[in-house]
Amino acid sequence: MPTTRPTIEIAGRRFGGGELFLIAGPCVLESRDLTHEIAGRVAEICGPRRVPFVFKASFDKANRSSSTAGRGPGLDSLEWLAEVRARLGCPTITDVHLPEQCAAVAELVDVLQIPAFLCRQTDLVLAAAATQRALHVKKGQFLAPWDMQNVVAKIERAGNPNVLVCERGVTFGYGRLVVDMTGFEHLSATGKPVVFDATHSVQEPGALGDRTGGDRTKVPALARAAVATGNVDGLFFEVHPRPDESPSDGPNMVKLDEFERVLDGVLAVHRAVRASS
């Protein structure tokens, strides 16, 4: 197990290097007040634990099971993320789905996220890389972990070295995802910080007919197991005070009042791993 972990620069700060960081927030932006409520609570939890975090929320959810599913409030809501950054001093992250979105989104957020289904879309990846913002690239559910080397190389050849690679489960038959714990070592071989998306990894695609299901009770164990491999630098959690009322990914999100306990369990494992390395 490597003793020196890679770092990434986000908004002028270094993340990684053996210190666990978080990407956390709701699946989709819903309202200005709720955005600030969730961001403030995440900051209150992470602050005393000295865990740096990037606040996450999507302005648009383009990858939906049904055409009737809510997609989010659109580009104008990115102002809410800019307000969070100004108030709390934390970096922010959101998804991009089209090349023409990248430059505009980069004006208001610190990290551009490439959705898993789109990680091999060259035009999108290159447009995101051209912004010189840090990129968080989710590994496709269809992709082997070692194939992320090609995605990273594509971004680096475009002149952007600031890349995070993310595991979010791999398709297993119909309607299930599994997490290959040995895959984190392959992702780490990219030389980039590795993030584990603990909440999307418990999705059950299409399980609710016209919606994706999931089981949030499995999130804590998967997060602890991922950190225990010694090859994970950051964790991704979608959190919400009332996840079952959320228009997107409700079954997978961690309840905000349970997030503190989940994080403490992960940090205990991380300390043990560092002590043994």
Structural description of this entry:
- The chain has 277 residues and is α/β, with parallel strands linked by helices.
- The chain has 8 helices and 15 strands.
- The chain has a single domain (16-276), classed as Aldolase class I (TIM Barrel).
- The chain has an 8-stranded parallel β-barrel, surrounded by 5 helices.
- It is globular and about 45 Å long.
- The longest helix is centred in the last third of the chain and has 21 residues, at 256-276.
Can you tell me the CATH class?
Alpha Beta
Q: Structural class, judged by helices and strands?
A: alpha/beta
The multimeric state of the shown protein is single chain
Please give the domain count. 1
Strand and helix layout:
Blueprint: E1 7-10, E2 13-16, E3 21-25, H1 32-49, E4 53-56, H2 78-88, E5 92-95, H3 102-106, E6 111-114, H4 122-130, E7 134-138, H5 148-157, E8 163-167, E9 170-171, E10 177-178, H6 183-188, E11 194-197, E12 203-204, E13 213-214, H7 219-228, E14 234-240, E15 254-255, H8 256-276
Parallel strand pairs: 3-4, 3-14, 4-5, 5-6, 6-7, 7-8, 8-11, 11-14, 14-15
Antiparallel strand pairs: 1-2, 9-10, 12-13
Helix pairs in contact: 1-2, 4-5, 7-8
